[in-house]
Write a structure and sequence with these properties.
It is elongated, with a radius of gyration of 17 Å. The protein is built from no helices and 13 strands. The protein is mainly β. Strands 1, 2, 5, 8, 10 and 13 form a 6-stranded antiparallel β-sheet that branches. It has one domain (about 10-140, about 150-160): Jelly Rolls, CATH 2.60.120.760.
Length: about 160
Protein backbone atom coordinates (compact mmCIF):
# COMPACT_ATOMS: atom_id res chain seq x y z
CA UNK A 1 0.00 0.00 0.00
CA UNK A 2 1.35 3.42 -0.87
CA UNK A 3 0.20 6.87 0.09
CA UNK A 4 0.19 9.65 -2.41
CA UNK A 5 2.43 12.65 -1.90
CA UNK A 6 0.84 15.33 0.23
CA UNK A 7 0.55 17.70 -2.71
CA UNK A 8 -1.73 15.21 -4.45
CA UNK A 9 -4.12 14.98 -1.52
CA UNK A 10 -3.21 11.86 0.49
CA UNK A 11 -3.51 13.74 3.80
CA UNK A 12 -7.15 14.74 3.94
CA UNK A 13 -7.63 15.99 7.48
CA UNK A 14 -5.63 16.20 10.70
CA UNK A 15 -6.68 16.86 14.28
CA UNK A 16 -4.00 17.69 16.86
CA UNK A 17 -4.52 17.74 20.62
CA UNK A 18 -1.90 18.76 23.16
CA UNK A 19 -2.40 18.20 26.87
CA UNK A 20 -0.31 20.14 29.37
CA UNK A 21 0.51 17.90 32.32
CA UNK A 22 1.15 19.37 35.75
CA UNK A 23 1.28 16.12 37.74
CA UNK A 24 2.73 12.67 37.18
CA UNK A 25 0.44 9.77 36.34
CA UNK A 26 1.48 6.63 38.23
CA UNK A 27 1.18 3.37 36.31
CA UNK A 28 -0.14 0.47 38.43
CA UNK A 29 -1.75 -2.92 37.73
CA UNK A 30 -5.11 -1.16 37.31
CA UNK A 31 -5.76 -0.21 33.71
CA UNK A 32 -6.03 3.53 33.09
CA UNK A 33 -6.24 5.86 30.11
CA UNK A 34 -2.98 7.73 29.53
CA UNK A 35 -3.73 11.39 30.29
CA UNK A 36 -3.89 13.27 27.00
CA UNK A 37 -4.20 10.20 24.77
CA UNK A 38 -7.98 10.36 24.41
CA UNK A 39 -9.41 11.98 21.32
CA UNK A 40 -12.72 11.97 19.49
CA UNK A 41 -12.30 11.81 15.74
CA UNK A 42 -14.49 11.67 12.63
CA UNK A 43 -12.48 10.66 9.54
CA UNK A 44 -12.88 12.38 6.19
CA UNK A 45 -15.55 10.55 4.17
CA UNK A 46 -13.06 9.74 1.38
CA UNK A 47 -10.31 8.37 3.69
CA UNK A 48 -9.10 4.80 3.44
CA UNK A 49 -7.11 4.87 6.70
CA UNK A 50 -6.67 6.84 9.92
CA UNK A 51 -3.27 7.35 11.51
CA UNK A 52 -3.50 7.64 15.32
CA UNK A 53 -0.38 9.01 17.03
CA UNK A 54 0.32 9.68 20.70
CA UNK A 55 3.57 10.93 22.22
CA UNK A 56 4.14 10.79 25.97
CA UNK A 57 6.98 10.74 28.51
CA UNK A 58 7.65 7.92 31.01
CA UNK A 59 10.21 7.35 33.72
CA UNK A 60 10.84 4.20 35.76
CA UNK A 61 9.99 5.21 39.28
CA UNK A 62 10.05 4.28 42.04
CA UNK A 63 11.70 1.06 40.88
CA UNK A 64 14.63 0.55 38.56
CA UNK A 65 12.97 -2.40 36.77
CA UNK A 66 9.92 -1.39 34.78
CA UNK A 67 7.64 -3.42 32.54
CA UNK A 68 4.32 -2.02 31.41
CA UNK A 69 1.72 -2.57 28.71
CA UNK A 70 0.06 -0.08 26.37
CA UNK A 71 -3.07 -0.88 24.33
CA UNK A 72 -5.14 1.10 21.85
CA UNK A 73 -8.78 1.33 22.90
CA UNK A 74 -11.96 2.57 21.24
CA UNK A 75 -15.56 3.46 22.01
CA UNK A 76 -18.38 5.14 20.08
CA UNK A 77 -20.08 7.21 22.79
CA UNK A 78 -18.50 9.09 25.70
CA UNK A 79 -20.34 6.97 28.29
CA UNK A 80 -19.51 3.60 26.69
CA UNK A 81 -16.94 1.20 28.12
CA UNK A 82 -13.59 1.08 26.33
CA UNK A 83 -12.87 -1.97 24.17
CA UNK A 84 -9.54 -3.24 22.89
CA UNK A 85 -8.63 -2.89 19.23
CA UNK A 86 -7.29 -6.31 18.19
CA UNK A 87 -3.52 -6.63 17.69
CA UNK A 88 -2.82 -3.10 18.91
CA UNK A 89 -0.96 -3.70 22.19
CA UNK A 90 2.71 -3.26 23.14
CA UNK A 91 5.05 -3.85 26.05
CA UNK A 92 7.73 -1.44 27.22
CA UNK A 93 10.50 -2.83 29.43
CA UNK A 94 13.53 -1.50 31.26
CA UNK A 95 15.65 -3.92 33.28
CA UNK A 96 18.51 -1.83 34.53
CA UNK A 97 20.16 -0.75 37.73
CA UNK A 98 19.85 2.92 36.78
CA UNK A 99 16.94 5.26 36.28
CA UNK A 100 15.67 5.63 32.74
CA UNK A 101 13.20 7.79 30.90
CA UNK A 102 11.89 7.90 27.37
CA UNK A 103 9.65 9.97 25.14
CA UNK A 104 7.47 7.39 23.37
CA UNK A 105 5.70 7.99 20.08
CA UNK A 106 3.03 5.37 19.33
CA UNK A 107 1.77 5.35 15.73
CA UNK A 108 -1.07 3.07 14.62
CA UNK A 109 -2.50 2.88 11.10
CA UNK A 110 -6.17 1.86 11.23
CA UNK A 111 -8.79 1.16 8.59
CA UNK A 112 -11.18 4.11 8.37
CA UNK A 113 -14.68 4.15 9.87
CA UNK A 114 -17.80 6.22 9.41
CA UNK A 115 -19.02 8.62 12.06
CA UNK A 116 -17.29 9.67 15.25
CA UNK A 117 -15.20 7.42 17.48
CA UNK A 118 -13.12 7.90 20.63
CA UNK A 119 -9.58 6.50 20.71
CA UNK A 120 -7.20 6.35 23.67
CA UNK A 121 -4.25 4.41 25.06
CA UNK A 122 -4.70 2.18 28.11
CA UNK A 123 -1.67 1.54 30.30
CA UNK A 124 -0.96 -0.89 33.16
CA UNK A 125 2.13 -2.25 34.87
CA UNK A 126 3.16 -5.89 34.85
CA UNK A 127 3.44 -6.02 38.65
CA UNK A 128 2.54 -3.40 41.20
CA UNK A 129 6.18 -3.39 42.30
CA UNK A 130 7.40 -2.41 38.83
CA UNK A 131 5.74 0.94 38.44
CA UNK A 132 6.59 3.89 36.30
CA UNK A 133 5.35 7.44 36.07
CA UNK A 134 4.09 9.23 33.00
CA UNK A 135 4.55 12.87 31.98
CA UNK A 136 7.20 13.54 34.64
CA UNK A 137 10.67 14.59 33.52
CA UNK A 138 13.30 13.95 36.15
CA UNK A 139 16.88 14.38 35.04
CA UNK A 140 18.66 14.88 38.36
CA UNK A 141 19.36 12.56 41.30
CA UNK A 142 16.96 14.17 43.78
CA UNK A 143 13.82 12.36 44.88
CA UNK A 144 10.58 12.21 42.96
CA UNK A 145 7.60 14.42 43.72
CA UNK A 146 9.63 16.91 45.74
CA UNK A 147 8.42 20.00 43.90
CA UNK A 148 11.24 20.58 41.43
CA UNK A 149 10.06 18.33 38.60
CA UNK A 150 9.16 19.37 35.11
CA UNK A 151 6.29 17.79 33.20
CA UNK A 152 6.02 16.92 29.53
CA UNK A 153 3.08 17.73 27.26
CA UNK A 154 1.20 14.77 25.72
CA UNK A 155 0.51 15.12 21.98
CA UNK A 156 -2.23 13.16 20.20
CA UNK A 157 -3.12 13.37 16.52
CA UNK A 158 -5.55 11.65 14.19
CA UNK A 159 -5.01 11.99 10.46
CA UNK A 160 -7.34 10.91 7.63
CA UNK A 161 -5.35 9.34 4.78
CA UNK A 162 -6.22 8.12 1.29
CA UNK A 163 -4.09 5.39 -0.26
CA UNK A 164 -3.52 4.93 -3.95
Amino acid sequence: MTYLKESSGSILDEQITSTTNSVAQTVTVSRAVINGSQTQYTPDATATHVLYQCSFQWINAPDVNTHFYVSLMEKVNAGDAWSYIANRSWAISVVDSASACSFENIEVLLPTWSGSKYLALYVRSHLSSTECKLHQLKMDSSGFDVGNENFVTTFTTCTSLRSS
